[in-house]
Each structure stands twice: as C-alpha cells, then as structure tokens.
C-alpha cells in the first residue's frame, strides 16, 4: 500500500515541478516576445527612413548633376550663339562691301564701254577719211607747202596726226583689256556675293537652331528646379 503510494507521490511532484517550470517560462518568454516585436518594427521603420533618405540624397545629387550639365550646355550654346551672331554681322558687313564694289565695278565698266565706243567712232572716222582721200592727200599737203620751213611744219603736223591715231588705237586696246578685267572682276564679285548670301542664310539657320536649343535648356533647368 505504501509502495504504491510512493510512486504516485513522485509523479505528482514531478507534475507540479513541470507545471511551475512552464509557468515560469511563459511568464518570462511572453513578455520578452511582446517587447521584441515593437523593437523589430522600429528598427525596420528606421531602416526604411534611412533608405528613403539615401534615395532622396541620391536623387538630389542626380538633379544637381543634371542641372550642372544643363548649365554647362546652356553656356556652350550661348557662346556658340554669340559667335554665330558675330560671324553673321561680319558676313553682312562683307556682303555690303561686296555690293558696293559690285556697283562701283558696274559703273566703271559702263564708263569704259562708253569711252571705248567713242574712241572707236573717232578711229572709224579717221580710217574712213584715209580710205576716201588715200595717201595722195598727204602728198598734196606736203607739196603745197610754201617753203622748207612750212614743209617741216606740215610734216610735224602730219606726224602728230598719225601719233594721235596710234595713241587712239593703243587707248582702244587698253580700254578693251580694262573692260575684260572689269567684267572678270564683276563676275567674281557676283559669285562672292552669292557665296556670302548663302553663308548668311546658313548662319541665320544656325542661330535659330541655337536659340531653340537654348530655350529648351532653359525650360529643362526650370523644370529641374521646380522638381
């Protein structure tokens, strides 16, 4: 009877100890778990905040970098625009000078052609007179002289007339050469003017492109600052 009661007593005691141990474990573990969960959540929130902060800082640095790049591009475009405008002003000035030269050369050419026509008419009249009178008229002039002194004077006069004819023919040749040169210069200046006009058109187009690019960059800079 006593032997059967003793094992039961041991089992009962073991059950009490086990129950007390479980109670102690739960009383310690449950509060620990209840404290651990909020701490983990706070740590996660802190990590998220740090990640957002890092992402914001990275985005800010990227924005500043883009703004610096846009500012550099804008400065480059402004320099190109200023250079193009200066070149355009220089081209316009050259074109104006070329147009003035062209007008002057045209006027000189017209004058030379008028003088050539006049000298050619004079020479034509002289040649027609010589053909009509022939060499007999010169001999008659010499033979009709009154004395030797008069003869010498008439010879000098005839030499002077012949010299004038020679000079006239030489002037005509020079004038023809001058006209040929002026015509060449005129065509050259016309070609230069066409080239300058094309350069001016191209430069204006470049300025328009640079202006549009500048406006686009300015708009991008404003958007970057507002972002």
Task: Walk me through what this model shows.
- This protein is mostly helical.
- The chain has helices spanning 2-133, 136-143, 148-226.
- The longest helix is centred in the first third of the chain and has 132 residues, at 2-133.
Can you tell me the residue ranges where pLDDT is under 50 for at least 5 consecutive residues?
Answer: 1-6
Report on the biggest sheet.
Answer: none
Helix-strand string: HHH
Q: What is the averaged pLDDT score?
A: 73
- The second-level CATH architecture is Orthogonal Bundle
Question: Could you give a quick summary of the protein structure above?
Answer:
The chain is an all-alpha fold and 227 residues long. Helices cover 96% and strands 0% of the residues.
Strand-helix topology:
Blueprint: H1 2-133, H2 136-143, H3 148-226
What are its keywords?
mainly alpha, Helix Hairpins, 3 helices, 0% strand, disordered N terminus
């Amino acid at each position: 009877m006593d032997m059967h009661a003793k094992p039961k007593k041991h089992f009962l005691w073991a059950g009490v100890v086990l129950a007390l141990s479980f109670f102690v474990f739960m009383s310690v573990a449950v509060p620990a778990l209840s404290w651990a969960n909020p701490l983990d959540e706070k740590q996660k929130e802190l990590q998220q905040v740090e990640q957002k902060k890092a992402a914001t800082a990275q985005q800010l640095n990227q924005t500043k970098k883009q703004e610096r790049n846009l500012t550099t591009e804008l400065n480059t475009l402004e320099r190109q625009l200023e250079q193009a405008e200066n070149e355009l002003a220089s081209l316009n000035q050259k074109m104006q000078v070329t147009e003035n030269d062209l007008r002057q050369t045209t006027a000189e050419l017209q004058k030379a052609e008028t003088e050539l026509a006049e000298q050619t008419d004079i020479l034509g009249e002289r040649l027609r007179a010589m053909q009509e009178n022939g060499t007999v008229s010169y001999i008659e002039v010499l033979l009709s002289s009154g004395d030797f002194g008069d003869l010498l004077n008439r010879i000098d006069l005839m030499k002077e007339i012949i010299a004038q004819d020679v000079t006239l023919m030489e002037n005509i040749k020079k004038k023809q050469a001058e006209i040929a040169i002026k015509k060449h210069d005129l065509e050259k200046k016309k070609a230069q003017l066409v080239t300058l006009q094309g350069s001016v058109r191209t430069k204006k187009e470049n300025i328009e492109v640079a202006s549009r690019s500048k406006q686009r960059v300015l708009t991008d800079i404003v958007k970057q600052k507002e972002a």
